[in-house]
Design brief:
A: alpha+beta, Cytochrome-c3 Hydrogenase, chain B, three-stranded antiparallel beta sheet, 10 strands, 13% strand, B: alpha/beta, Beta Polymerase, domain 2, two-stranded parallel sheet, 3 helices, 25% helix, globular
Chain lengths: 402, 158
């Protein structure tokens, strides 16, 4: 979009563009994002995101922890989708070690990460709507999110920082009747989504605020490395679950949701459609998960022995002790494992030097890369559109800064 | 992983046919292919991989560094490439020496590299020649040192 700076002669002399700080404390920047806006009246000439306010050095911390200890840190990268981060890290470690996770555990992982996608999209929908002045949706979507959080709590003991996926499988066997609870939530969800859609999809104010706002072409999206719903709303049918299936996604039947408009409204449509696809996947996973079966792989010295074995055999006790004190040492080498997190491509690059601690861990977080497209989205538009654009990129600042 | 398995050979053979000098070494690990590129060839190789119709690595997934201190060549830059059209992934590895590490910027080829290169400059102190705006990105502007280097302590005084 091209903009011309019009210099207007005023009584005080020629008018100059104004520089405005948006953030780091601003309710619609979803955390501590600072955007330096250069304005000509209400038109944004340039927008420069300034990040790093939430940098906690998670990658550096990982280097002084054992592989298993790192999992708790991954929860805190993207605190709206902790299980996706757990999964990315565990898959990378499993690839590095070279262990196969039992199918049952893989399906449970799929089910829970899809629930995570739903919660993440619900938070996005609610907060994005509140940014644009639609308060009601926020209250509804958080109500549904809470129901899913209760499932997390029931399964792992934690609402948010679950750390439920462990290297080789899961932390513990889920309670026997957990699938009943999932079913109850999932059966109610489609009706709720319809409710949100009646509030927004044909809403004239909503359409005026999002249609034709923040356009991103497919070429620009790829050049900027944008992934996830942003990329798919620009017409690129790229979904890692289909392109490079992991954790048995190839066993599931679902569609990659795309739109071609590439504006804020298209991103809204993609995310709502993705919630519906996730419900489909969760339903299939519920049928596939057997009531009995292993919830983690068997690998001596890497995966803790069962509670019973640890209590009854000296060998089991020794392994248990060694795993939790020394950890385990994967072979030297580097792996890159990516998953489709609710925000896009979450990649975990892991380098091992053959010791019990990762030599280097890098989290390629989708928010960090997607945020780079912000100037492209909002330059040449009104300040009010900046809010809409930040909203649709669906960034989590914890993930941007790590 | 199968698609990656087949894909890597395709890219590798093409690269070798195009210019054998540009491929210093090939590392295979866990079904992933890493091609070691001499630093002076990086931009040429990147341009080739993007424009070659059978490869089309138009998407730069990630750029990250591993510090092999005190070994020389100390820094390993990992470029993770993705071809959405062909369903391929490839990692380029560029090794740099410890004193004033610098390499040509690839922002002209993949605009997404802008922030990635700033991050590597910030946390590892690697300079990217031709980068439009090489500033710190995560750490404060007045910060001294590069925190992800191995000779930078995790805690205590610097």
């Amino acid at each position: 979009m091209t903009t011309k700076t019009t210099v207007i002669e005023t009584a005080a002399g020629p008018a100059q563009p104004m520089v405005l700080n948006m953030g780091p404390q601003h309710p619609s920047t979803h955390g501590v994002l600072r955007v330096v806006l250069e304005l000509d009246g209400e038109i944004v000439l340039t927008a420069k995101p300034d990040i790093g306010y939430l940098h906690t050095g998670i990658e550096k911390s990982c280097e002084s922890k054992t592989y298993s200890q790192c999992i708790t840190l991954t929860d805190r990268i993207d605190y709206l989708a902790p299980l996706s981060n757990n999964l990315g890290f565990c898959l990378a470690a499993e690839k590095l070690i070279g262990i196969e996770v039992p199918k049952r555990a893989q399906y449970i992982r799929v089910l829970l990460t899809e629930l995570t996608r739903i919660t993440s999209h619900l938070v996005w929908l609610g907060t994005h709507a509140i940014d644009l002045g639609a308060m009601t949706v926020f209250l509804y979507s958080f109500r549904e999110r809470e129901e899913i959080m209760k499932i997390y709590e029931y399964v792992s003991g934690q609402r948010m920082m679950t750390s439920y996926f462990r290297i080789g499988g899961l932390a513990l066997e889920p309670p026997p009747d957990w699938l009943e609870r999932v079913r109850r939530v999932i059966d109610a969800l489609p009706g709720h989504i319809d409710e949100y859609e009646t509030l927004l999809t044909q809403n004239r104010i909503w359409m005026a605020r999002t249609k034709g706002v923040g356009n991103l072409s497919a070429e620009d999206a790829i050049a900027l490395g944008v992934s996830g719903p942003l990329l798919r709303a620009s017409g690129v049918a790229y979904d890692i679950r289909k392109a490079f299936p992991y954790s048995s996604y190839e066993d599931f039947d679902f569609n990659v949701q795309t739109q071609t408009a590439g504006d804020c409204y298209a991103r809204y449509q993609v995310r709502v459609a993705e919630i519906r696809e996730s419900i489909k996947i969760v339903r299939q996973a519920m049928d596939k998960i057997t009531p009995e079966g292993p919830f983690r792989a068997e690998a001596r010295g890497i995966i803790p022995p069962s509670r019973e074995e640890m209590k009854t055999s000296i060998e089991g006790l020794i392994y248990h002790f060694k795993i939790f004190t020394e950890g385990f040492a994967p072979p030297p080498g580097e792996v890159y494992q990516c998953i489709e997190s609710p925000r896009g491509e979450l990649g975990v690059f892991m380098a091992s030097d053959g010791s019990a601690k990762p030599y280097r861990v890098k989290f390629r977080t989708p928010s960090f890369v997607n945020l780079q497209s912000l100037p492209k989205l909002c330059e040449g538009r009104l300040i009010a559109d900046v809010v809409a654009c930040i909203g649709t990129t669906d960034i989590v600042l914890g993930e941007v800064d790590r | 992983m199968e698609s990656q398995e087949i894909g890597k050979h395709a890219a590798l053979q093409k690269l070798r046919d195009w210019d054998n000098q540009a491929v210093a070494e090939v590392i295979e690990f866990r079904g992933e292919t890493t091609v070691v590129i001499p630093p002076q060839h990086l931009v040429r190789v990147a341009e080739y991989l993007v424009s070659e119709p059978s490869l089309r690595f138009t998407f730069l997934s990630d750029l990250t560094t591993v510090d092999r201190f005190p070994m020389e060549l100390r820094f390993e830059l990992n470029y993770h490439l993705l071809s959405i059209e062909r369903g391929l992934r490839l990692r380029l590895l560029v090794r740099l020496q410890g004193a004033e590490p610098a390499v040509a910027s690839v922002t002209g080829i993949w605009p997404t590299a802008n922030w990635h290169e700033r991050e590597n400059f910030d946390l590892f102190g690697i300079r990217f020649h031709g980068h439009p705006d090489l500033r710190r990105i995560l750490m404060p502007d007045e910060w001294e040192g590069h925190p992800l280097r191995k000779d930078y302590p995790v805690e205590g005084f610097r």
